[in-house]
Design brief:
The protein is of the alpha+beta class. Helix content is 15%, strand content 33%. The protein has a single domain, classed as L,D-transpeptidase catalytic domain-like (Beta Barrel), CATH 2.40.440.10. The chain has three helices and 14 strands. Residues 70-206 form the L,D-TPase catalytic domain.
Length: 206
């Protein structure tokens, strides 16, 4: 039976939207992975991904680096985070980075990982924003917690750097410099990265 042209075209459009593969097969974009997620008793809302620039959506890209697979490379200038894979590939995520005066770079490692973490604002942040003093003992996990659904804690040679790779409910901040230095990802993306990156993994921030 011959399929109608309209049906064929619709099928091709749907396949492209879900798989996100380019015509030359150079990368895969995960457009369909930003729906509502039930996780540990929380219901993460869907991200209106059509409002996020395509370059900041999770995708597999070609990536030329001397870093070993499993390494996380944070490109603060371009607002990308790369999880290095074998074969010259990487998973690329869009990120939000530190605003002016809060930028940083260097090498660290993932010392710990937490699902639905508690957020404790540093004393310096409380000094700048006294209204946060109520969370001095820690803000409980939840949908509005600034660390989102996952956090990975970065340590360097001096111990806890104070910086984190973490989720955020503020999907609109991806691609911007708005944080106090931490690297933020959409919650659906931090869950994906959390499942890939291991404790002890090297993190390079450039």
């Amino acid at each position: 039976m011959r399929m109608k042209p309209i049906f064929v075209a619709a099928s091709l459009m749907l396949a492209t939207a879900l798989a996100g593969c380019t015509s030359d097969g150079s990368f895969q974009m995960f457009n369909s992975d930003y729906g509502s997620v039930s996780d540990a008793g929380y219901q993460l809302p869907a991200v209106p991904i059509y409002k996020v620039e395509s370059k900041y959506r999770r995708q597999i890209v070609s990536y030329d680096t001397s870093e070993r697979p499993g390494t996380v490379v944070v490109d603060t200038a371009n607002k990308f985070l790369y999880f290095v894979m074998p074969g010259g590939k990487a998973v690329r995520y869009g990120i939000g980075v530190g605003r002016e005066g809060f930028e940083w770079h260097g090498t660290a490692r993932i010392a710990a990982k937490r699902e639905w973490p508690t957020w404790t604002p540093p004393s310096a942040m409380i000094g700048r924003q006294p209204q946060l003093a109520k969370w001095r003992g820690g803000m409980p996990p939840g949908l509005m917690n600034p660390l989102g659904a996952r956090a990975m804690y970065l340590f360097n040679g001096s111990g806890d750097s104070g910086y984190r790779l973490h989720g955020t409910p503020e999907w609109f901040s991806i691609g911007k410099a708005m944080s106090s230095g931490c690297i933020r990802l959409m919650n659906q993306d931090i869950i994906d990265l959390y499942n890939r990156a291991e404790v002890g993994a090297k993190v390079v921030v450039i």
